[in-house]
TrEMBL record:
InterPro entries cross-referenced by the UniProt entry: DNA_glycosylase, Endonuclease-III-like_CS2, Endonuclease3_FeS-loop_motif, Endouclease-III_FeS-bd_BS, HhH-GPD_domain, HhH_base_excis_C, HhH_motif, Nth
Enzyme class: lyase
Protein name: Endonuclease III
Cofactor details (free text): Binds 1 [4Fe-4S] cluster.
Length: 219
């Protein structure tokens, strides 16, 4: 691993030593539902919804025992709620048929579940089952590209593969959480804190932004 990558990992590690999955859950099943709900939606909103959702629905059978419309109403504060409600019921049906009502533990099995993509599968295997993985969400993608860990035009999959090559395997899960915290609370989409960023000296995007700032101030 090169020095630049080590420096980035150590710096964000110092900034966010307690970075963790912010989706509230108490078992792999709840985590899978929460991550499925979190697509194009903030963790904060998901946590508000799951607070009551997880009291009402404890098992896959519970989600299948109500009409689809009722489940839709229970999650209607979430974006794409109709589609997600449908996927939740299909997912519950499938894990009852194939996996005895349990969430499967491998990435390959997880991505076959309705509504579960690569990112969701990575979050579940790493947080629920302790398998090292890097899930690339919007924060991870943005930060990786800004810091030059990935190319500007790289797809989400390419970003994931580059990070997996550059970061030691035993640090994948922790790095995923720290990159999210760094992107969510510091290197934000709209107004990143470039002027107080400890990584400014090695950040191509940050340097560019600070230059533009200077020019606009003097003009």
């Amino acid at each position: 691993m090169n020095q630049k990558v080590r420096h980035i990992l150590d710096t964000i590690g110092e900034m966010f030593p307690d970075a963790h999955c912010e989706l509230n859950h108490s078992n792999p099943f709840e985590l899978t539902i929460a991550v499925l709900l979190s697509a194009q939606c903030t963790d904060e909103t998901v946590n508000k919804v799951t607070q009551t959702l997880f009291q009402k629905y404890k098992t896959p059978e519970d989600y299948l025992a109500v009409p689809l419309e009722e489940l839709e109403q229970d999650i209607r504060r979430i974006g794409l709620y109709r589609n997600k409600a449908k996927n939740i019921q299909k997912l519950c049906q499938l894990i009852l048929e194939r996996y005895d009502g349990q969430i499967p533990t491998t990435h390959e099995q997880l991505v076959e579940l309705p509504g579960v993509g690569r990112k969701t599968a990575n979050v579940v295997v790493s947080n629920a089952f302790g398998v090292p993985a890097i899930a690339v969400d919007t924060h991870v993608e943005r930060v990786s590209k800004r810091l030059g860990l990935a190319g500007k035009d790289d797809s989400v999959l390419e970003v994931e593969k580059k990070l997996m090559r550059k970061v030691p395997r035993e640090e994948w899960t922790l790095t995923h959480h720290r990159l999210i915290f760094f992107g969510r609370y510091h290197c934000k989409a709209q107004s990143p804190k470039c002027d107080i960023c400890p990584l400014l000296d090695i950040c191509p995007e940050g340097k560019k932004r600070m230059k533009i700032k200077k020019v606009s101030k003097t003009s």
